[in-house]
Every structure is written in C-alpha cells, then in structure tokens.
Amino acid sequence: MMTRKVSVVIEQDEHGCYAWCPELKGCQSQGKTVEEALANIREAIELFLETLTDDERSAALSQEILTTAVEVHA
C-alpha cells in the first residue's frame, strides 16, 4: 500500500468543522474540532479510495490542487 497526499479543505463555523477533499467528489466529513475533522476526513478518504478501481484511484490522485490566499477590498 502506497502513502499519498490529498488536498483537504476545512471550513469552521459555530457548529464545528466541515472537511472535504477536492480530488474525490463527494468525499466529506465533519468534526467538533479541526483535529477531529482531520481524523474523520482521513478515514473517509481511505474508505472512499477502497471503492475505486485502480484506474479511478490513479486518475483522482493525479489531479493537482493548488490553494492560496488573496487580498481583497471589503
């Protein structure tokens, strides 16, 4: 089994944290804290990847997701 890195986005609000993986459409989870959300999305990603064929897994994990922050006038 190979270790791979995937992108995870975490959004936090008054209810907790919502985590999702841009490479894997529909792969999402949540938690009360950032740490809990990260643990939960890691498990969700691993389970999601088990449902894919080798070709589907390779295609999904070969995507390059870039993130950055920009300044805006508000």
Structure description:
The protein has 74 residues and is of the alpha+beta class. The chain has helices spanning 34-50, 54-61; strands at residues 9-13, 16-20, 28-31. The protein has one domain. It has 2 helices and 3 strands. Strand 2 and strand 3 form a beta hairpin. The longest helix is centred in the middle third of the chain and has 17 residues, at 34-50.
Strand order in the sheet with the most strands: 1-2-3
Largest beta-sheet characterization: 3 strands, antiparallel
Strand content: 15-25%
Compressed to H and E, one letter per element, the order equals EEEHH
Counting DSSP E segments of at least 2 residues, the number of strands comes to: 3
Q: Give the number of helices.
A: 2
Which overall shape is indicated by the principal axes computed on the Cα atoms? globular
Cα-atom radius of gyration: 14 Å
Q: What number of domains?
A: 1
Helix content: 25-40%
Runs in which pLDDT lies below 50 for 5 or more consecutive residues are: none
Query: If you average the pLDDT, what whole number results?
Result: 93
Cα(first) to Cα(last) distance is 47 Å
Structural class determined from secondary elements:
alpha+beta
